[in-house]
Protein 1
Amino acid sequence: MDLMLELVFGYRGRDCRNNVHYLNDGADIIYHTASVGILFNVATGSQSFYQEHTDDILCLTINQHPKFTNLVATGQVGDSADMSATAPCIHVWDAMNKQTVSVLRCYHSKGVCSVSFSATGKLLLSVGLDPEHTITIWKWQEGAKIASKPGHNQRIFVAEFRPDSDTQFVSVGVKHVRFWTLAGRALLSKKGQTSSIEDARMQTMLSVAFGANNLTFTGTISGDVCVWKEHILNRIVAKAHNGPVFAMYTTLRDGLIVTGGKERPSKEGGAVKLWDQDLRRCRAFRLETGQITDCVRSVCRGKGKILVGTRNAEIIEVGEKNAACNILINGHMDGPIWGLATHPSRDVFLSAAEDGTVRLWDIADK
């Protein structure tokens, strides 16, 4: 008899970003923990799993094009010295039937930290954890690599296609923002220029979102959001958050931007904010988790709801109208788990982990 995976407690939020997404008009959410991709039905709390990865998943994105509905790409940790089974790779798979559509074996040694589909859904962009932080563009259906280039000598956290483009994307990282164009098989890029604004210096950039008319927004480690026109710094939204702006999300239908950062909950402030297209007005949402500081790692927006993943391994739905919070998932925020004990007669168990907590779990209640 084979054991069947039925339920996974936990979500990897501590070192990932923008890795929780809605599917099926918000009926399902997709995320990952350990080496497992998880489809979670919000109404029933039931889970189903994609289990083809051989090591921890580090990044996840969904294909927004209607032709490729419910297609997910995930990138994993790996060791490229061994180009066999443990080589870092990207899997493109169907979230509903869990079938693998494509496996992209890459030379991103150490692993893949960011994936993004293009506007038509046909191209996939990946960023590696290798020393050159290589950026690669794939025709994922054919499993073919179109273009590849060293990205930066320090960490790149995210690279994302412009939502209306198959050729333009932006990468952000340690003291880095670059505006890229795919031209045939060549990758051309321009560094973001800060000199247009007095005393502005290149900060470490953690997240990226997009506006109309070739505007780009980047979230910084200091809590500012930079607004770029083409590759030139246009203005700075100072202290959009009190702490680092770890996550941003562009909503295509109304152009609003969601930001997620590190913030102490206060009367007027919250770790999740919804901004207008010009990043001038915003509404702040508090997460009501009881944490002294909320730290958001992933944001995404569905119909009337904002989906949030936190560093503390919670996944939370926030209602836009009433600002009500619904905690869907929680887990240990730092591994490894050192203690595990089942109850002798009841369907509960205890876990103890490096995050300094002991937690009591109810199996029936999930």
Protein 2
Amino acid sequence: VAGENFDQSPLRRTFKSKVLAHYPQNIEWNPFDQDAVNMLCMPKGLSFRTQADNRDPQLHSFLITREDGSRTYGFVLTFYEEVTSKQICTAMQTLYQMHNAEQYSSVCASSSCSMDSLASSIDEGDATSLAKLQRYNSYDISRDTLYVSKCICLITPLPFMQACKKFLIQLYKAVTSQQPPPLPLESYIHNILYEVPLPPPGRSLKFYGVYEPIICQRPGPNELPLSDYPLREVFELLGLENLVQVFTCVLLEMQILLYSQ
């Protein structure tokens, strides 16, 4: 388990993650920092879900700045895949049995009344809500399907967010599709790593992902730096008034701290 979150029910806990594979194995000018990439890809660790939970893929990005000021950009697509290991499913069931036993013990210890009087003191509506909550936040190996988070990450020297997002989504569809793409998955990964060049400054580049072509554009020397992040999301996250206030603080050269999860 990652962190001290034993008070949470097992499906709400986070577990320690690790890098399963990375390609290429190493680059002299850009060594692979396994711990940093692992932490930035899954900052909250592994998480489990059941068929009752939302399992839509999510994309986020990160930035690694080294001591010499060089930057590396990472783009991560996190998704959930079914747990096929009977051992892990059994362990989750055991964790829930232990958790429920602890919860029952704490209720009995804190209550001086009998279970009959306790049950009679709960009205019908509360009992129904409690039952729904327990059903939603529980795991039964014979009834539920267990899923675990997994991610694929693309690390690039420039922040081509839209191009990386499209490629990762297409790769994810190829992994989960019942009908495989025309070529092996390794071919598409080799293509983007070794055969797709960075576009020259001031030029656009069109390359093929897995299913559809992808276009990325690089600003020229006299243009503003590459900013491939959608402004709409900034407005949705901060709101118009907050964004104007932040922009004002930038113009006034004030110190700005953005705090989030």
Protein 3
Amino acid sequence: LVQKWVLREISNFEYLMQLNTIAGRTYNDLSQYPVFPWILRDYVSETLDLSNPDVFRDLSKPIGVANERHAKDVKENFEDPTGMIDKFHYGTHYSNAAGVMHYLIRTEPFTTLHIQLQSGRFDCSDRQFHSVPAAWQARMENPVDVKELIPEFFYFPEFLENQNGFDLGCLQMSNDKVSDVVLPRWARSREDFIYQHRKALESEYVSAHLHEWIDLIFGYKQRGPAAVEALNVFYYCTYEGELQDPGRAQPRVSVCPSPSSSSSPGAVDLDAIADETQRKALEGIISNFGQTPCQL
């Protein structure tokens, strides 16, 4: 697969989808939904110049430090607040069930799932996915918001349209009604956004740097000393099997994503936990925090 990608026999999109599948990601599990990178940082220009490296995000850095100003704070926050678990940089995850519903709120069955998650109503309008430029700006301003993208951003224009006419409320500051997703200025339509965004994914710049992001999500910078150095360590329960804290002599045990994880060395077998309350709590953590893909 790597060889096919290197020889450009398959596209960047196909390569990422294959890696997601091999690493246990699937459309059938919201807590292990396929994850794709933010690849652009220019959402304000009238035209998108893919020959200009400045329009692209630095793919060698986690989304939490895509804004370099956040790196110092993230590094200083690398700690275990309780003294009982492994240290981490981020208490939230770049991919989880709530994040998938956030992006797909206008499309069933994700609309209904979102409403169920929010106790029978839509979330506050300002927290909804209402604008692509605003979503990127949130990543730049808030190191706690570390959501990456989903594959739909590269092929599915319908998720950007409020085709069902859902009442998503109004934004507090502007009082603008939330309906279709606001697009970057360089996109003439939803279809044009998908076309240009997919074109950006297959560009020379991304082709030359995509492996750096893959290292963070699927590869050697996912855990261990390389992850610490890359500011890429997440809450310990998001990792499958054993997670070695560089500061500890012995590996810590975290929850394996698979409910029947007894075959995974060092993982917690949820089925073996007799206390139903404890088991439900662990399942809730896995579902809400998201899961790091299997390391490839």
